[in-house]
Amino acid sequence: MASKPFHLAWFLGNSFGVHGWKDPWGGRTALDWASPSLQIDLARAAERACMDFVFFEDSVFVPDNYGSSMDFYLKRALRAPKNDPMPLVPLVAQATRHIGIIPTISTSFYPPYLLARLMATLDLMSEGRVGCNFVTSTAARAAQNFGLDEHIDHDTRYEMADEFVEVVKKLWTSWDADAIVADEERAVFAEPGKVRTIDFEGRFFKSRGPLNTARPPQGTPVLAQAGGSPQGRAFAARHMDVVIAAVSTVQEMKAYRQDLRQRAARNGRDPDHIKVMFQVMPLFGDTDQQAREHLARHRAGQDPAKMLAAMGSLFDIDFSTFDLDAPLAELTTNGQQGTLKRFLSYGRTLREIAGNFTFGLENIAGTPESVASQLAELMEEVGGDGFVIAGPMTRRYIAEVTDGLAAVLQRRGLTRERYTHRHFRDHLMEF
Ligand SMILES: Cc1cc2nc3c(=O)[nH]c(=O)nc-3n(C[C@H](O)[C@H](O)[C@H](O)COP(=O)(O)O)c2cc1C
């Protein structure tokens, strides 16, 4: 491998929802969206490409922001229907041998004990291959599904998230790694002295412990998050092994990574132990010209209303009531603050923003060879740590990335060519 390889993984937005509906390469989505076969095919292909992990986004509400109605979203299968991604984890684990698997959970609504037990079980079942994406859940409708009339405010949600992670980490270590001796002669399965209560009592959570299953093989499953506000970054810098960053310029990439590394160092952590992976949606063609035309068609074909409906559901804002051509007043949200700040920086009016905004690195197109060069240049400039692929999900696209792009990256020694460790975290921390 070359001296400076980078990490590659897959971020599956809309997770266990409807993919490729109306896409000419979408297969029989209408019939089989609820089958796990696409996600399993994705994981197998990503493992063939020796990626670090597959990441399953999630949300727990049906949006009704745009036009103050669910209609727009339901008609287009936009964010609903969406199955719970947790049952995908053991299926993907069974269909693969090495790749890491990261489902998403909400720190605002999951009881920490249940989550700690679930992730410990999955880490034990997969022999050390799972991680967990901690989100605070941003939508008022999600909060209402869990019995709250109004959502907890943004900063308090992060304070809860912080305490949540503290509790689950304590639960995961409530059994020593060598607590299970299974000593038949002494008739001792687990050593009682190696299992302890945690007696946690914080501002938001209380848990006695110990966990009623053993310590996960990784000790702590891989911890991941994606929030970009100052509170989100502080949370990441305290706990996370990997952060998914949605930014769209090389300057933003550099600044994001530098900021997180500095914050981690201020917390006494080794900055190399927090990996920043940038969201990228490369599009491909047989020639660069063809790929650029593909990208231009893709952008021109995007429906501004769909983009505003999707973004509005992240901010709890109904953009259908706005004049597209009027200068925008300052907007605030109790939802995704980091994303709203970036969104508003893309123009003076909603029409300008809808035309220009990109969630991640969305302007990369070419042959597999030339996309590989573009990614390599970005990494050279930024210094690490890698990319998560988040392009339009079809089996054709999976093949373009894993058999096209990833094969070139591997040939050039830019990404991993084989898995050399047992556990997910060890692969993540390998370089
Ligand atoms: C790339 C990316 C992926 C995300 N994935 C999820 C997700 O799966 N589920 C979710 O509820 N929020 C998700 N979020 C939202 C973040 O976890 C976070 O809650 C949100 O960005 C608000 O945090 P902020 O105010 O710190 O920006 C994602 C955000 C980004 C940028």
From TrEMBL:
Which residues are noted in the entry as FMN-binding? 58, 104, 154, 158, 229
Gene3D superfamilies tied to this protein: Luciferase-like domain (3.20.20.30)
Report if keyword Ion transport is assigned: no
Top EC class, one word: oxidoreductase
Q: Does the keyword Hydrolase apply?
A: no
Q: Under which EC number(s) is this enzyme classified?
A: 1.14.-.-
* Pfam annotation, one family: Bac_luciferase
Q: Which GO terms describe its molecular function?
A: monooxygenase activity; oxidoreductase activity, acting on paired donors, with incorporation or reduction of molecular oxygen
Q: Which InterPro entries match?
A: Diverse_substr_monoxygenases, Luciferase-like_dom, Luciferase-like_sf, NTA_MOA
- Where in the numbering of this chain does the Luciferase-like domain appear? 36-385
- What family is it from? Belongs to the NtaA/SnaA/DszA monooxygenase family.
Protein name (Swiss-Prot/TrEMBL):
NtaA/DmoA family FMN-dependent monooxygenase
Q: Which organism is it from?
A: Verticiella sediminum
